[in-house]
Structure formats: structure tokens, C-alpha cells
Write a structure and sequence with these properties.
By secondary structure, this protein is mainly β. Helix content is 9%, strand content 33%. The strands form two sheets. A four-stranded mixed β-sheet has the order 2-1-6-5. Strands 3-4 form a two-stranded antiparallel ribbon. The protein starts with 14 loop residues before the first strand and ends in a 23-residue tail after the last strand.
């Protein structure tokens, strides 16, 4: 039995969770979890997040059908970020894109 790793939630009780595709290794999205969302995710194998805008839990794919089956969950070395390895059904992004990270940034964008 390993020791319970310490998860460092932010002031709002949340920790960022990154979803990565098991097969392609693409970084699909970043969302937020509180302790209960993480507990539900690990118990059910379905990625469950906390919606900051709606102030409620959401199971990825519940409304869109674009489910995330959690293969593995890892905590980073500082205990302040979670990496989920997932089997993604359909698009990860609510825009219909496969990944949420489709907007390129350059230094000029910040001037």
C-alpha cells in the first residue's frame, strides 16, 4: 500500500486536469477537478470535471456523446496538476475540434 500523494488544490479547491489521448499522445484539453470530481473519475473510469462557469459536475460526453474513458491518472511532481490518459470518443473540444489546442500563438500576438 503506497502513501497517499498530497494533491495541492488552488484557493477555489480545484486542480487542473490535462487529458491526453492514449493512442496519439495528443494533448486534448484542460479542465478543472475538485476532490469529488477526481474521486468520481477514479471510481467510474469516466472523466468527470467541475464546471467553473456552471458550478456543477460534468461527465465528459454526457451531453455530446464524446466520452473520455480514463485509462490512467497521474499526479505531477508538485502535486498541483493531474494528467489523465484517455480513450477519446469523437472530438474532445466543444467546438468540434479533436483537441482544444488549435490556436497558434506567436510573440506578435502579445504586442
Amino acid at each position: 500500500m503506497g502513501h497517499m500523494p498530497e494533491i495541492h488544490y488552488n484557493a477555489d479547491g480545484l486542480v487542473p486536469a490535462i487529458a491526453q489521448d492514449e493512442d496519439t499522445r495528443e494533448v486534448l484539453m484542460l479542465a478543472w477537478m475538485n476532490e469529488e470530481a477526481l474521486r468520481r473519475t477514479l471510481a467510474t473510469g469516466k472523466a468527470t470535471y467541475w464546471s467553473r462557469s456552471r458550478q456543477e459536475y460534468w461527465v465528459k460526453g454526457e451531453t455530446s456523446g464524446h466520452h473520455q474513458a480514463v485509462v490512467d491518472a497521474a499526479l505531477d511532481c508538485d502535486g498541483d496538476a493531474i494528467l489523465l490518459t484517455v480513450r477519446q470518443t469523437g472530438a474532445a473540444c466543444h467546438t468540434g475540434n479533436r483537441t482544444c489546442f488549435f490556436t497558434d500563438l506567436t510573440a506578435q500576438d502579445l504586442t
